[in-house]
Each structure stands twice: as C-alpha cells, then as structure tokens.
Amino acid sequence: MTTVKITDLEKEYHGVRALRGIDLEVEDGEFVVLVGPSGCGKSTLLRMIAGLEDITGGTIAIDGEIVNDMRPRDRNVAMVFQDYALYPHMTVEKNIGFALRARKIPESEIATRVDTTTRMLGIGALHQRYPRQLSGGQRQRVAIGRAIVRDARLFLFDEPLSNLDAQLRDDMRAEIKRLHQDLGRTMIYVTHDQIEAMTLADRIVLLRDGVIEQEGSPLDLYERPNSKFVAGFLGSPKMNFIPGTILGRDITLAGGMKLPLPPHFKNAKQKDVIIGLRPQHISVAGKTVASGHAHVPVTIELVQPTGSRSHVTFPLGGVASVAEVDVHDVKSPGEKIALDINMTRAIIIDPQSEKVI
Amino acid sequence: MAMTSMRPHRRRAPIGRIVFIGIYLLFVLVPLYWMFITSIKPSDDYLAVPPVWFPKAPTLVHYTAALFAYRGLQGIINSLIISLSATVLSAFLGTLMAYSLARFNTGGKHLAFWVLSQRFLPPVAIVLPIFLIYRMFGLHDTYIGMIIAYTVFTLPVSVWMMFAYFRGIPKSMEEAALVDGCSRWLSFRKIALPLAIPGIVAAAIFAFIACWTEFFFALILTSRYTFTLPTVFRAFLGFQGAQYGEASALAIVSLVPSIVLGTLVQKHLVRGLTLGAVRG
Amino acid sequence: MAQFSIMKGVGTIPRMSAISEWSDRNFKWLLVAPAVLLILALSVYPLLFSVWVVFVNYDFQIPGHAFVGLKNFQQVFADPVARWSLVLTVVLSAANVTIEFLLGLALALTMVKNFRGRGLVMSIIIVPLFISPVIVGQAWTLLLQRPFGPTNYMLSLLFGHDVAIGWLTESPWLYFALIIADVWQWTPFMFVILLAGLTSIPSNLYEAAELDGVDGWQVFWSITVPFLGPMIMLAITFRLLDAVKLFDTIFIMTGGGPGTKTYTASFYLYTVGFAQFHISQATAGSWIFLIITVVVVSVLVRRLLEVEPT
After folding, report:
1. What is the ipTM of this complex?
2. How sure is the predictor about B240, in pLDDT bands with cuts at 50, 70 and 90?
3. What range does the domain containing C144 cover?
4. Residue of chain A whose alpha carbon sits nearest to that of B193
C-alpha cells in the first residue's frame, strides 16, 4: 500500500517560483504521469518527492507519513534517471546490487535478486559488463533493474525514454507498461511526450508554469479538456483552433463560412468563441450531411503522408487547419475537395479566459 | 575540414610556418642542450674557444660532486619528502573542498573568490610574517613547517582544478546513490571520488611540480636541515668558473622528473594553468 | 510474472547514528573546513600579524618592538631604491607579458592546424613551464655569462665582428637577458591557453565564412578575435599577476646587480627584510606592494568575470 499525498506544495529558488500550490493524491498502485512543456516544474516535483530537492512550502506525505525532511535514502523510493545515472566504474551486477549492499543484505540473497531482475529484463547475460559497453536500450534496462531489485514502495521515473531513439522508445514504453502490470507498484512518471503520457498513465497530471492545469484519466483530458492549453497539448496532430462568432444557431467564421453549434453547447450569452476541432474529426465528405456536421469546400495547401493516413492542411476561417484523412483521398496540394466537419465532437473555448465552455 | 581559414593568411605556403616553429624549437632546446653538455664536460673545456658543443671526453664527475659535495642529494631527498607530503595533503583537502563548492555552492561566490585570490597573493607579503611566526613556534627549517606552507601554497590550484572537474561530472549518479541508500559521504566516497581520480592525479602532479620548483618560500623558510633542491643552487652563485659543471648537473637532475611528470599531464595543462576556468 | 513475488521489498534502510546524522547534515561545511582552517592559519593569520609588525619597530639589529606609527611606510617611500624597484617591476612585467603574448599568439596560430609531429612539437614547447625558475635562470646564465657562455662567440660569428657584451653586467643588455629568460619560460603559458581558445572556436563558423566569401584578415578580426577575447584577457591577467612577482631569475642571474640596477619589488623587499633585517620596513613595503596588487587584481578580475568564456 503506497499512497502519496502532496498538499499545497511550493518550490522557490533564486527568486523564481517553480511550483505553486500543488495538490495531488496518488493512490496505491496507480501509474501517474506528470506531463507538460519544458520548465513547467514536473521534474522539480518528482525530485522533491524523491528528496533530491528541498521543499519551500507545503508537505509531501508517503503512506501517511510526512517526508519533507527525510533523506532520499530513508524514503524507500526508487528512481530511474533520464541519463540512466549508471555507475560507470561498476559492472551491471554491481550497479544493480549497489542498493542491496548498502543495506547489508547477505550476498546470497543479493545474487538471487539480481539474477531474477536481470532475467526479467532480458539482460541476464550482461552481469559482468560495464555501462560503457552497453547499448542505450540495455543501459535503460539496467537503470530500471536497479530500481526494481529492492522492490521499493514507490517508483519514480524522470523522462527515462528521452535519450532513446524513436524505435527503441516505442519498445521500452511497452516494457514499462508491462512492468507496472506485473509489479503493481505505485509509479510516478515524468515526460514531456504526450504520447507516453497517454499510453502509460492511469492518470495524467498536466502542469504548466508550476501549476496543475488539469488532471484526470487520459481519456478525460483528451475528450474533456478544460482549457485551450490542455486541448492543444494532447493529441497529435494538434487540435485546430478557429475563431468565430455565434449568431443564432451557427458559428460564423472569418470569411463568412458557417458551422452549426455543437448540440451539447448550452451557453446562451457567449458571442466570440474559439472552436477546437481535432484533425481526426474532419474527414472527406460523403453524400449526406449528418446532424451536427457540416460540409465545407476547401483547397488543400499541404499534403503530409504518414503511411496509411495523410495530414492535409487547408485554410478554415482564416486559420491553417489540419485534417487527418486516408492517404488515398487527397493526392496533391491545390486539390479542391469537400470536407466533413464533425461539430458534435468540437469544443468551444472562450477567447478571453482560454477555458472550455 | 576547412581549417585553413582559421589562420589570418590564406593558403600560405607552409614553409614560413615550418621555419618559425623550427626557430622556436631551437630557442627552447639550445639552453637545455648547453646545460646538459656543460654537465658532462670536463672542466678543461669550460673556457675553450671556440666553445665546445660536443665534448670529446664526457664525464660524470660533476654529478657526483653536485650530489654529494654540494649536498644536492640531501636537497633532493628534502624536496621529495616535502613535495610529496604537501601534494597529498593539497590534493586531498582540495578535492574535498572542490566537491563541496561544486555540488553545494558552499559559501557562495565569496568563499570561492577568497580561495581563488590566494593564488595571486605576492609571496613576499606572506613569507615575511610566516618567517617570523615560524621562528616563534620553532617551525623554521622543519619539514612540518614547509609541508604546511606548501600545502597552502598549492591549495588554490588544486581546489579550482577539481572544482572544474566535478562540474564536468553529471550529478545524477551521486543522486542515484542517495536514492539507493547512501549518505552524502558515501555517495561522495563511492561514486564521485572514483570518477574523479584522473582529475585528482592531474591536480596532484601540478601541485608536485609547483612544490618541486618553488624557490622563494624555501629560501626563507629552510636552512641547514630541510633545504630543498632549488635552494642548493645558491651555492653556485658568484660563479668563479669552477662550479659550472656541478650547477648544470644538479639542474639536469632536477628538471628531468618535473618535465617527465609535466608531459604526462599535458592534457590537463590548460585546466591547471587557468585554475579550471578553461577546459583544455 | 510470478517469480517476482519472491522479491519482497527490502524496506527502509536502518537509520543513521547521531554522529552520522550530524555529519550528513553539515556535510558541505565539513568538507571545506580543513582547507579553510589551513588557509586561515597560513594566510590570514600571518597577514594580520604583519599588520602589527608594520606599525612597530621589528628589526633584528635593534632590540625591542617599539610602536613607531607610520615611520616604516615613510622609510619605504623615501627610499629611492624602493621607487626604482617598483618602476623596474612594472616595466619588466609589461615587456615580458607583451612579448610572451605576441609570441604565444603567433605560435598558437601556426599550431592550430594539425600536422605530422605536432604532438611532439607541443611537448617540447611546453617543457619550460615545468622547470624551476631558478634553473631557467641558471641555464641562461650559463649561456650568457662571460667568458664562459657561447653567446658572444656565436654572435661574433653571426655579425662578422667581435661581440663582447656583458649580458649579466652591462645595462641595457642585462635587462634583455632577464626578459629573454622570462620569455623563454613563460611564452608556452600564453601559447597553451591561446591555442585552447583557438581550437574551441567552432569550425563551422569558418566554413560559413568561407562559403560567404569572407577573406583572411576579415575572418581573423570578425570571428577569431571576438571569440578569443575572453581567453586573451584571462591569459594576460593570470600571467601579469605572476610576472610582477619576479624574483627567482633575478636572484640567480644578476643578484639584483650590478648595484641595485636589477632590483625588482620582490627582490628589494627580500634584501631589506633578509639581508638587512629591517623586518618592519620590509613588511611595510610588502603591504604597499600587496595593496597595489589587490587593486590591480580587482580591476582585472572584475573585467575578467564580465567577459568570462563559457
């Protein structure tokens, strides 16, 4: 049972407030991902949980015990660093066994644990190698091995996949997910990559400029973002944002085009809005216009094929917008085509507050 | 690589470069060669005209005289004792301090600047009162006195070289050790220190060379018992002509170790000369 | 996987003892303490002590330590040799550092490009740095001293007529001798630093310039010099601060003479303090020297920190 409760956490250094009023509760066995743009404070938050950074204000409690003044070694947490932080002058076996030896565990038990760990991670043959002799992926596994060998109560990951190339990243992502399933431990994971966040998290905590913008399950944040920032951060390609004005039952865009109001939109007083449309909700128009949809004729400006799909750019309401269509639907720029816009999945954003309404 | 553009003259024929470097190399080597030749020349050749560049009957007589009659050997032994001890102390204390400065920014700018400024104190301002103090405490002409003095004398460079070195090591490994179960001391001893060994060796060698070649402090703070090698050369002052060979012999004996050591740490030279401000 | 269930958590690490707790909390201070104490003992304490010395009459030739106010300073100011030594120090240092800089820069520029045997040449060039200044003085004395040194003979051959210069006894030649010895030893200092600076300039800047059609001298002034600027400041500052302490080579080569012609500041103070044993007067002089050095250091280091190289 490992829970983490963070209350009103503050971090300030050199006069800069890196974290402000952070409240967060992590349940036992949860995989929480802290995500956000560079400088949002996610790494700082993680390091404060580990004990590597001082706390300016607020409390962090692990399993109900406040750990503000506790040294990292006493917190029983394990951490995987971005640059793996393997000890270069020790073999893989020594690297993984280091924490166990620090606890004076008998050598026989250390051997068993290290064996189990390396076999589990597929690096059983590398015991006597040094980190410099390993590939990036192997080093990553050793770093993870070091974390799991003592079965700490809390696992912390600080952008562990950033230094891997794209192919390897996909493989390792799946391995980390599997690891969580097998171990069932509470894990807190930091990344700037929204794909990692979406695929790994039980719950995502999106940070910006030291505050939590929104937290919830990946699907929550994807389908029900509460601000333009959150909407634009998750999802690839990025959501389209088109300004418009509500007149009656329609939204009028710059240039005169009209789109129907989404059926769930209730606010009667709003006039100026920004429409949030995911590229996946714009497709090539069929014969009929469904309720809540609109067909618009557009000229395609840019075609970027990605395999079976294509990202096509076109102007909509004065904004360069992207739609995701089948790669065979649009071949070259300059084509004129009719697109179906699914307004039932659109979100409406207030231009002033940038919040979703 | 288009490195030709680095030079102010484009596509210049390399002859000028070769000549220039050649002359400079001569400039460097001629005094050393002459000193070496003098050390093995029989005394009759000293005043020969034209000067003798290749003695026909080389001898080692001057070496034995320098080492024994002029007590060069004692000077070497004293220098070794003092320099080695001071080097060890300086490297050790300097590394500790450097780690603290590099990882924890201890004492902020002020402490760092204070240590740095020690390097630039004119020795004469320090040596006068130290001389008096040593005499008061009976530390004049003692090994301990010299060792402490040389340790302080070489500390700034040791600290600053190691400071730059530690800055170059990512601290994530030490942090991993902290999370794994180490106290700060263990994290330093087991992780940071082993990784810093190349830097410590380089700093130690620099410190040793500095102690081995130091003259002013030794001149004033040593006397009959602990005189160091550089001070032995005082005996050759006021050349009457008879001691050229001995002086040269002792010089050669003295400079061989420091040159050998210095060549070994060439890589770290820039870091040492600029107190770590520049990575070579 | 089932096998993992055998690895139950190893729990928390045993808490540290009280001493370990205390030393862990104060770790960073404990690390600097020994070094700081040593420097306090052997640098700060002596300086404070010397402040007392300066205001009394500490002299081996006179008994007692009577308080004499500013008399020691006055004696120093009044001594023409003191003023001369200061002037000489400034002039010699300036000459040394300038020549070393120019020569070092020229060397660095020629050695930037890699060529066969460059490593060996480098090793030879830096040799003088590791030699005791006393020995450097010794070596040049051997070369220059009449009648033993071959210099006059070689010069006679070169110029076709008899050269009989007293390199260590006649002015102005003896100043050249001192300068040559210093330049011989310390040019590599400049060379090494400037070379490091030159090689750190990213080569793609030069490549871009070449593609743009910028020519040699322009490249030098618009790319090389700005990048090198901080390095030059660093090298000159460090070297200058050492150059003013000039003592060892003077001691061996000329002994300050003839007369007091080659008294640098350090040598003058040495003579007053340890040859004449007017300790207080020497201390007063060294304080004046120290204050001048501190002022110059502050100015230079401040400039240095403003343009610090990355």
Report:
1. 0.86
2. low
3. 77-307
4. A89
pLDDT, tens digit, 9 for 90 and up, residues B92-127? 999 999 999 999 988 888 898 888 888 888 888 889
The CATH class that applies to domain B66-273 reads mainly alpha
Say how many Å lie between the first and final Cα of chain B, rounded: 21
Cross-chain CB nearest to B176 (options A51, A81, A89): A81
Q: Identify the residue among B20, B92, B120, B209 best suited for mutation to test binding to C, counting C beta carbons within 10 A and taking the highest.
A: B120
What confidence score (pLDDT) does residue C2 get?
A: 39
- In this complex, do A151 and C1 lie within 8 Å of one another by their Cβ atoms? no
Residue C20 domain-assigned (yes or no):
no
H-helix or E-strand containing A259? strand A258-260
Within 10 Å of residue C287's Cβ, how many Cβ atoms? Answer: 20
Which chain C residue lies closest to B279 (C-alpha atoms)? Answer: C196
Contact at CB, B175 and A87, closer than 8 angstroms? no
In this predicted structure, the answer to whether residue B280 has a pLDDT above a threshold of 60 is no
3-class secondary-structure state, position A234 = coil
pLDDT block averages, 10 residues each, chain C of length 310: 53 76 89 93 91 81 74 85 90 94 92 84 92 92 81 80 78 88 95 88 82 78 82 86 89 83 89 87 89 81 61
Terminal CA-to-CA distance of chain A, rounded, Å?
38
Alpha-carbon distance of C35 to B98, in angstroms, equals 10
Q: What is the mean pLDDT of residues A227-236?
A: 91
Using one digit for the tens of pLDDT, what is the confidence trace for A23-68? 999 999 999 999 999 889 999 999 999 999 999 999 999 999 999 9
- Residue among B176, B181, B186 minimizing CB distance to A85: B176
Mean pLDDT of B133-152: 93
> Does residue C134 lie within any of the structural domains?
yes
Torsion of CA C131, C134, C139, C143, to 10 degrees: 150
Task: Let me know if residue C202 belongs to a domain.
Answer: yes
Give helix then strand counts, H and E, for chain C.
15, 0
Domain boundaries, chain B: 2-59, 66-273
Largest CA distance in chain A: 77
pTM of the model: 0.86
Proportion of chain A above pLDDT 70, given as a percent: 100
Task: Give the residue on B whose Cα is nearest the Cα of A80.
Answer: B176
Q: Find chain C residues with C-beta within 8 A of A149's C-beta.
A: 7
With CB atoms and an 8 Å threshold, state whether A99 touches B191: no
Q: List pLDDT tens digits, range B177-227.
A: 999 989 999 999 999 999 999 999 999 999 999 999 999 999 999 988 999
Name the residue facing C9 among A102, A151, A182 (closest C-beta). A151
CB contact under 8 A, B183 and C245: no
Instruction: Check CB contact of C11 with chain A, cutoff 8 Å.
Output: yes
Question: Are A150 and C1 within 8 A, CB to CB?
Answer: no
pLDDT exceeds 70 at position B49: yes
Residue C201 included in any domain: yes
Mean pLDDT across chain A: 90
Nearest Cα neighbor of C238 from C301, C303, C310 is: C301
Local structure of C169: helix, strand or coil: coil
Burial class (CB in 10 A: 0-12, 13-18, 19+), B57: exposed
Does A103 sit within 8 Å of B176, measured CB to CB? Answer: no
Task: Measure in Å the smallest separation between the Cα of C212 and chain A Cα atoms.
Answer: 33
Residue of B nearest to C221 (CA): B8
C244: left (phi over 0), alpha (psi -120 to 50) or beta: alpha
Which CATH number do you get for residue C186? Answer: 1.10.3720.10
- Name all chains with 3 or more CB-CB pairs below 8 Å to chain C: A, B
Q: How many domains does chain C have?
A: 1
Identify the three-state secondary structure at position B68: helix
Mutate to test the interface with A, among B172, B180, B190, B195 (most CBs of A within 10 A): B180
